[in-house]
Design a protein that fits this description.
alpha/beta, 8-stranded antiparallel sheet, 19 helices, binds fructose -6-phosphate
């Protein structure tokens, strides 16, 4: 996700902006830039790739005395990660940085082009600076022009703008994307997307609320609400601990990442949904022409999302889909035919086994696609095509938001392929697109649910094991629930298809065996319920997760009523993640860095 920094003061603004961007690296980015106004002159630098490239470009650049500056790390949404698309974007005498998406940029751009404005980039952001300069011509002040510009743009934004017509002012506006301003007693002002860049530099910070806009000067911080009412900043003391600041008040990164799922999934969906079709610019005819089968290959959690995809692809797109554990596929001398699209799924894009299978598929002449969270990773560079999941940096070793965004991509992709194959009616596609838009709501963590699980977790700290059971797509979800629990609690847990229990595992059933039963109302409810009843009859301790009350359960975790099983999937996914988290915390384990595990498994 993009990151923003800003500085106004007498210190070395170049260093402050660059070090601020460094602190925002964790958000993920593919290019970066800064613009500084000092002694009546703007200097701006941009570079693609890591910050070191920008540092290299600014080596000779010196800042001394009073200046104002803005900086940005860009995570591409509109337009490729190129230098021209990197922020800050320039008008004739102003620069802007922006995080978010300007939804009405196309119409504003059209009008500006008709007025004779030349655009240098493919981004939505560039309209802000040109619209501002257009308004400046007819406004009494730069602030009036900025205010008018903000009222004209729609969408999500955190934005900073600097202009030669006000050499000691930074204009800001926030709606939907995070931003805060920090102060100290040296009359400096600092802006950032999160508080880490401000630690050690500011004493007090004001977190902007949606709709806030205004400006800072050396002596002033002026904020207006979206109703144009002036308001006092609400300062809070800034933490001095960087790690805890990055966690935004959550106890662990994993917890933060579970809570973030709603907003990152909104990013995953961004620009990919129309009313009646799913758009994937990344999947062109050349890639899909002549394909009769899809083979999905991955490890761990990514394998579970692939397994989920195999149900959706066959059901909705009517395309034969097989899945493979990468470490197995590598050595079993598999038959690979050229009418197969080979898809690897990886959060990191670096997992050694998965990467190797991608190389094998390429060597066999197959078309390849990677579903990945990390741009420019080895798999992204190697595959013919790439769909980025846009989950942002995942720090917790146990994957949560990466899985959620992978499944979101796969659900979208199943509809994309369904349309291409004429496998679903347009009406069905339209109604499923509406459901896709509801995922961010389904994964919002409900406080009451979290409290309930926290209380309940104390009953699940011992026993001789857990079975997570589900049918259909709830089977991969059961596998994922079991994996989460074992990774961070070190308790033995297995995922099973509900219908398989009676073929052996049911022999283990007794009160010390915990069964976590996934009972979706909208998919094979009666069948899954009978399987759970069989376990209940043998005295297994049952914890049921469902929107339908189930009286044979010892514990029951309700989810909201949903209209479709995939929304139930997402609701239950969050319950399972919180369940593992709370058990691990009660056991006193290191949730973010569980023993024996690494975030990126780059060895076989
Ligand atoms: C589990 C987990 C691992 C990874 C696996 C593959 O929480 O994170 O199982 O899913 O190591 O990693 P990626 O997706 O990076 O290829």
């Amino acid at each position: 996700m993009c990151g923003i920094v800003g500085y106004l003061g007498k210190k070395n603004s170049k260093e402050i902006l660059l070090s601020g961007l460094k602190e925002l690296e964790y958000r993920g980015y593919d290019s970066a830039g800064i613009a500084v106004l000092q002694n009546d002159k703007f200097d701006s630098f941009k570079a693609i790739g890591k910050l070191i490239n920008l540092e290299e470009k600014t080596k000779e650049f010196v800042t001394q005395g009073f200046s104002i500056g803005i900086g940005h790390t860009r995570w591409a949404t509109h337009g490729k990660p190129t230098e021209l698309n990197a922020h800050p974007h320039v008008g004739s005498e102003s620069y802007v940085v922006h995080n978010g998406i300007i939804e009405n940029y196309a119409e504003l751009k059209k009008e500006l082009i008709a007025d004779g404005v030349t655009f240098l980039s493919q981004t939505d952001t560039e309209v802000i600076v040109h619209q501002f300069e257009k308004n400046l011509k007819t406004s009494t002040s730069a602030f009036e022009a900025f205010k008018k510009t903000i009222s004209e743009i729609q969408g999500a934004y955190a934005t900073l703008l600097v202009t030669k017509s006000e050499k000691e002012t930074i204009f800001f506006a926030k709606n939907g994307s995070p931003m805060l301003v920090g102060i100290n007693d040296e009359n400096e002002k600092y802006f950032a997307s999160s508080d880490t860049p401000l630690i050690g530099k500011c004493t007090d910070v004001n977190y902007f609320e949606d709709g806030d806009y205004g400006y800072v000067t050396p002596d002033e911080l002026t904020i207006f609400t979206n109703e144009d009412v002036k308001k006092e900043p609400l300062f809070t003391k800034l933490s001095t601990n960087k790690l805890s600041a990055q966690k935004d008040g959550y106890r662990f990164f994993m917890e933060k990442e579970i809570y973030e799922q709603s907003s990152v999934i909104a990013d995953t969906l961004l620009g990919r949904l129309c009313d009646d079709e799913v758009l994937f610019d990344e999947l062109d005819d050349a890639l899909l022409e002549g394909i009769n089968e899809i083979k999905l290959c991955a490890c761990g959690t990514s394998y579970h999302s692939a397994l989920t995809a195999s149900y959706l692809f066959e059901r909705y797109a009517k395309i034969k889909t097989t899945i493979e554990v990468a470490s197995e596929f590598r050595y079993r001398q598999p038959i690979m035919t050229k009418d197969t699209l080979f898809v690897v799924i990886s959060q990191s894009g670096e997992t050694a086994d998965t990467l190797e299978t991608l190389k094998m598929a390429k060597a066999a002449g197959l078309k390849t696609l990677v579903i990945c969270n990390v741009d420019n990773s080895s798999m992204v560079r190697l595959a013919d095509a790439c769909v980025l999941t846009r989950a942002g940096v995942e720090k917790g070793v146990a994957s949560t938001k990466a899985f959620a965004t992978q499944v979101t991509v796969f659900w979208m992709m199943s509809l994309y392929l369904a349309k291409r194959n004429n496998a679903l009616s347009s009406q069905d596609i339209v109604s499923q697109i509406k459901l896709l838009r509801e995922i961010p709501k389904s994964v919002k963590v409900d406080d009451e649910m979290h409290e309930r699980i926290k209380r309940l977790s104390k009953r699940y700290l011992h026993g001789h094991g857990f079975f997570f059971i589900g049918r259909d797509v709830f089977y991969p979800l059961a596998l994922e629930g079991a994996l989460k629990l074992k990774e961070i609690s070190y308790l033995h847990a297995e995922g099973y298809p509900s219908g398989e229990m009676k073929h052996g595992p049911i022999a283990l059933a007794d009160p010390e065996l915990f069964t976590i039963a996934l009972l979706p109302q909208h998919l094979l409810y009666e069948k899954a319920k009978s399987n759970v009843e069989e376990l209940s009859a043998r005295d297994s301790t049952i914890c049921a997760i469902s929107s339908v009350n189930f009286d044979k359960a010892d514990d029951f975790i309700p989810i909201k009523k949903c209209s479709h099983y995939m929304l139930e999937f997402f609701e239950m996914m969050v319950v399972l993640q919180v369940f593992s988290l709370e058990i691990s915390i009660r056991l006193g384990n290191d949730v973010d860095m569980p023993r024996n595990l690494a975030k990126s498994v780059t060895v076989e």
